[in-house]
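About this split. The held-out portion is used to measure sequence recovery: a designer receives only the structure tokens and must propose an amino acid at every position. Recovery is the fraction of positions where the proposal matches the reference. Here is one held-out target exactly as it appears in the evaluation file.
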């Protein structure tokens, strides 16, 4: 049987697929993190400086379902088995999140975050503003839109695809007042290329697979009826 998380995920997948019909199945990759337009522009010798530390939005996997067990209902060594190490600072952070939001499920969150990672990277690479506007917080949307606009003004087009997402793991978690924060580390293999008006390659390599490690931090107001998580920080991992 499908649980409520699965139903919401499938509904979201259909919604995003309709928005990204021309790009789903193609994903983004380049020598630098493709979702981070500011890092990608560093490869251009005459590119203007860009801002960093932007915010993006995570499609929610939270729903009205049976409450998760309270943090003290399960022995510490079993509580987050398969997710994070027992008795670690990350486990303590997850305990705090569950104490504030009994519906939080770490495994479903990881699934949702992984999906969001691919959706956002793909939409950015294709310059799909409509999709990005649904997925990004206002300030990061403005930043992404600015870079996409510059790319369009130069007459450049991006081609991209994921080869694989090899890892998606929680590496940080905390409850700050009414805000839950979860940091994810993604390891992926990507192929991407950006071409100028004439079709010449100006960035990336259509024949090269790049290993990329990205760290995204998602946040949500647990007191809000809005179930959506927002990506509040991005950086390149190592």
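Reference sequence for scoring:
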């Amino acid at each position: 049987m499908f649980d409520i998380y699965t139903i919401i995920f499938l509904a979201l997948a259909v919604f995003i697929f309709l928005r990204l019909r021309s790009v789903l199945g193609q994903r983004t990759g380049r020598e630098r993190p493709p979702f981070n337009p500011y890092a990608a522009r560093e490869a251009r010798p005459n590119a203007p400086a860009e801002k960093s530390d932007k915010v993006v939005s995570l499609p929610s996997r939270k729903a009205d379902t049976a409450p998760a067990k309270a943090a003290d209902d399960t022995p510490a060594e079993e509580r987050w088995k398969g997710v994070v190490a027992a008795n670690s600072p990350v486990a303590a952070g997850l305990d705090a999140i569950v104490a504030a939001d009994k519906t939080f499920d770490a495994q479903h969150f990881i699934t949702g975050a992984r999906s969001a990672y691919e959706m956002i990277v793909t939409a950015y690479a294709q310059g799909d503003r409509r999709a990005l506007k649904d997925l990004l917080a206002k300030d990061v949307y403005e930043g992404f839109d600015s870079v996409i606009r510059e790319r369009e003004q130069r007459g450049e087009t991006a081609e991209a695809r994921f080869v694989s997402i090899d890892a998606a793991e929680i590496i940080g978690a905390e409850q700050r007042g009414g805000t839950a924060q979860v940091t994810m580390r993604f390891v992926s293999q990507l192929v991407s290329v950006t071409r100028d008006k004439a079709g010449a390659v100006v960035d990336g390599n259509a024949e090269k697979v790049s290993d990329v490690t990205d760290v995204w931090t998602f946040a949500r107001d647990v007191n809000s009826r809005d179930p959506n998580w927002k990506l509040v920080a991005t950086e390149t991992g190592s």
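Annotator remark: Residues 4-236 form a domain with the Nuclear Transport Factor 2; Chain: A, fold (CATH 3.10.450.240).
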